[in-house]
Design a protein that fits this description.
Elements lengths: L9 E6 L23 H14 L9 E3 L10 H11 L4 E4 L7 H13 L5 E5 L5 H8 L4 H14 L3 E7 L2 H4 L2 H12 L4 E6 L11 H4 L3 H18 L3 E4 L23 E6 L2 E6 L4 E2 L16 E2 H7 L10
Parallel strand pairs: 1-2, 1-8, 2-3, 3-4, 4-5, 5-6, 6-7
Antiparallel strand pairs: 8-9, 10-11
Helix pairs in contact: 1-2, 2-3, 7-9
Bound molecules: iron/sulfur cluster.
Iron/sulfur cluster binds next to loops.
Length: 315
């Protein structure tokens, strides 16, 4: 654990109160884990770091993730504590599959009282249910996820749909955008295209899911154009900038270019994680003018496909 991190180095907080989930997604590093922590422990740790490191919660984004955070029985209690401490903005990484009308109604009340608007990040592998369920490794994952997304939108919450660039998902990206537009419309919905960290069991399935950035990006650019035509907010995430047509750089997600460390609270402990621990600098990056703002390349991607696609951007 890096206890030498200073308050000014902490750029965001990430809490995974439970590793438990109902899916077994191929690329999830936690799919064989189900540990949970206690509400007392999470709140103690947060309080300690806020006072010890003099964090200013109102300037620090906080993400509540998992596993599936809404399977954790104390999630309401945690949200109320976080709101009271003042952390903003608040995002959730959720499957949305466990959402019920009463859960969403409760969340609406909690956030309304605090005048806060969270964003729910939901990975939708594809508009195609069989493709999605095959990657999530759970029958009906797609169906219950779509229902959960609808419930959140109906209560006025913002939902960010994550599309990961895998071989079976990239081919249908345009259809996925069409699906999002026709199924959910635009208010409250945004879309992001993400390079994949091939973690969990993903490396065993590379013949099926692996795809090079250079093969995927033409489809991503078409999908961005289609989002634009519908007025659907869109971003690109965790893709090396030198592979993206400069016209599309304006879609780079803002969080991709935040320096600093993540304060990580999970069932297995507390740690400080550098934002770039899982992504690499290639030799070419050393002479690149955007090396400090580029999301760079997942280490796991480089292990499989190498770094030959990368070339430095010169002034
Ligand atoms: S050379 Fe490296 S830093 Fe520059 S755009 Fe490519 S991946 Fe990013």
């Amino acid at each position: 654990m890096n206890w030498t991190v200073q308050n000014s180095d902490v750029s965001n907080v990430y809490i995974a109160p439970t590793f438990h989930c109902i899916n077994r997604c191929l690329n999830c590093p936690l799919s064989n884990h189900s540990d949970s922590t206690s509400i007392e422990r999470v709140v103690d740790r947060l309080t300690y770091f806020v006072s010890k490191m003099k964090l200013e919660p109102q300037k620090i984004p906080i993400e509540i993730s998992g596993g599936e955070p809404f399977l954790w029985s104390d999630i309401d209690h945690l949200i109320q504590n976080i709101l009271q401490m003042g952390f903003r903005p608040i995002t959730f990484a959720t499957t949305s599959q466990t959402m019920t009308s009463s859960t969403v109604e409760r969340l609406q009340t909690i956030f309304k009282m605090a005048s806060a608007s969270p964003v729910f990040f939901v990975t939708l592998y594809s508009h195609h249910s069989q493709v999605h369920n095959g990657i999530a490794m759970r029958p009906n994952s797609w169906q219950s996820r779509i229902r959960g997304i609808r419930l959140l939108l109906e209560r006025g919450f913002n939902v960010h749909l994550k599309f990961l660039l895998m071989r079976p998902t990239v081919e249908g990206l345009l259809d996925s955008v069409e699906f999002v537009h026709s199924e959910f419309g635009c208010p409250g919905v945004s879309v992001g295209f993400y390079g994949v960290d091939y973690s969990g069991r993903a490396l065993s399935y590379m013949d099926t899911i692996g795809i090079k950035y250079t093969d995927a990006l033409p489809k991503v650019e078409q999908a961005i154009d289609r989002c634009e035509s519908y007025g659907l907010p869109v971003s690109i995430n965790t893709i090396p900038l030198c592979l993206v047509d400069p016209f599309y750089w304006k879609y780079l997600a803002a969080q991709e270019i935040t320096d600093g460390n993540t304060l990580l609270i999970t069932p297995t402990g507390v740690d400080f994680l550098s934002q770039f621990d899982s992504v690499i600098h290639t030799d070419a990056c050393a002479s690149c003018v955007v090396q400090n703002t580029c999301p760079r390349m997942w280490n796991s991607y480089a292990q499989v496909f190498g770094t030959s696609e990368i070339s430095a951007i010169k002034a």
